[in-house]
Amino acid sequence: MTGKRNARYMGIGDRIFDYSNYTFMVFLVLITLYPFINTLAVSLNDANDSIKGGIYLLPRDFNFNSYVYVFKQNTIFHATLISIIRTVIGTVICVFCSAMVAYTISRPEYVLRKFITIAFVLTMYFNGGLIPNYLLIKELHLTNSFWVYIFPGMIGVFNLIIIRSFIAGLPEGIMESSRIDGAGDFTTFIKIVLPLCLPVLATVSLFVAVTQWNSWFDVFLYNSSNIKLSTLQYELMKILQNSNAGMTQRSEADVFAAQSGQEGSTFVTPTSIRATMTIVASVPIIMVYPFLQKYFVKGLTLGGVKG
Question: What are the alphabetically sorted keywords of the record (predicted)?
Answer without folding.
Answer: Cell membrane, Membrane, Transmembrane, Transmembrane helix, Transport
